[in-house]
Amino acid sequence: MQTIAFIGLGNMGGPMAANLLKHGYKLNVFDLSADALAKLAAAGARSASSAADAVRGADAVISMLPAGRHVEGLYLGESGLFAQLPAGTLVVDCSTIDAATARKVAAAADAAGLKMLDAPVSGGTAGAAAGTLTFIVGGAAAELERARPLLQAMGKNIFHAGAAGAGQTAKICNNMLLGILMAGTAEALALGVKNGLDPKVLSDIISQSSGRNWATELYNPWPGVMENAPASRGYSGGFMTELMLKDLGLAEETALHSHAANPLGSLARNLYEEHAQAGFGKLDFSSILKHFHPLD
Ligand code: NAD
């Protein structure tokens, strides 16, 4: 597998595509943004004039787009890529989208004789740049083995969650829990500070006690407690509140469709919605702390 078509070169897709180039793959790239295209062209990719142009001669297609409607628009319909790709082509969608759309697109790929995987990622923009992403894959095991070298060029951990759509379901479960844990951590720290505790001392105590979690260990929401966390740089350069809100919305839809209760996920979605409405949608999601404790 040598030539890869990469569609969607944003905050995540751009550095992921750059890592494929570093590993010696030939890349045909396409994005609606001329700036994003120019960056990859400067790094050695062939800048295509359309998605259809990008897949010409490609052995595999990777997409990294904002949401389900973009993925459907790219692949389905008369002018979609599935109508143009040679049978047997491997298609890997790394976007975070709802599992129902992922299954619908995978079924259309199957009908067209194509091999599709959903492979959403965890690890953020830093992981994308460093090539240390976690891929959470849904689809046939044989196709995952075909895709493995490609994924290894962009990531460190690769999990097979199950059949088509399972990668998206697992990703959404993880991110719902992350949203809940971050809000809970912010609430606990604000309660302690309101009652006279130092946020760093309380964080150290929680980190060695039963309330410890990813936020207290690696991504503390209180400014200044953890030097490398977004909270210590004005909540910039992390995972935007808007994207967390999107994922909590996907969790809610998944719960509705499967008749599952998700009271905490739903509460967290409402908290992040209010937070976004208050003007913090572009800040890192750990800024939910401001909901519990006003910062200067
Ligand atoms: P982004 O908005 O930076 O990039 C999306 C890119 O897709 C843009 O450059 C846009 O121009 C392009 N695009 C949209 N429609 C297109 C089309 N039809 N054809 C070609 N290009 C098109 O978003 P991002 O942060 O890179 O996120 C991409 C996906 O990864 C999302 O589903 C997001 O939820 C997921 N994700 C993001 C992060 C993160 O930390 N940013 C972490 C994990 C997963």
From TrEMBL:
EC number(s) recorded for this UniProt protein: 1.1.1.31
Keyword Kinase: no
Source organism, top-level taxon: Bacteria
One Pfam entry name: NAD_binding_11
Main enzyme class: oxidoreductase
Keywords assigned by UniProt, alphabetized: Branched-chain amino acid catabolism, NAD, Oxidoreductase
Pathway(s): Amino-acid degradation; L-valine degradation
GO biological process, alphabetically ordered: branched-chain amino acid catabolic process
Domain 6-phosphogluconate dehydrogenase NADP-binding: 3-162
Catalytic activity: 3-hydroxy-2-methylpropanoate + NAD(+) = 2-methyl-3-oxopropanoate + NADH + H(+)
Oxidoreductase found in the keyword field: yes
Active-site residues (renumbered): 171
GO molecular function: 3-hydroxyisobutyrate dehydrogenase activity; NAD binding; NADP binding
Domain named 3-hydroxyisobutyrate dehydrogenase-like NAD-binding: residues: 165-291
Family note: Belongs to the HIBADH-related family.
PANTHER family: 3-HYDROXYISOBUTYRATE DEHYDROGENASE, MITOCHONDRIAL, 3-HYDROXYISOBUTYRATE DEHYDROGENASE-RELATED
Record's protein name: 3-hydroxyisobutyrate dehydrogenase
